[in-house]
Amino acid sequence: MYYGTPMGWGGFVVMALGMVVFWSVLLTVVVLLVRRRDEHGGSALRILEDRLARGEIDTDEFDRVRKALRSR
Known about the structure:
Blueprint: H1 8-40, H2 44-54, H3 59-70
Helix pairs in contact: 2-3
């Protein structure tokens, strides 16, 4: 009779490490894709608010552009 696995402990360790690497890479890719979408996929109003906060535009221009966005 045969007892144990055909791979032995070495095969089990390699397979377990492979699964850890696989899930780590998959999780990293998902996180990077979500972050990239958040950086480039903001709404127009949010981008406008960020520009106002950074001082790139004044409140008059902010109000004008916000009204234009809402009229769409």
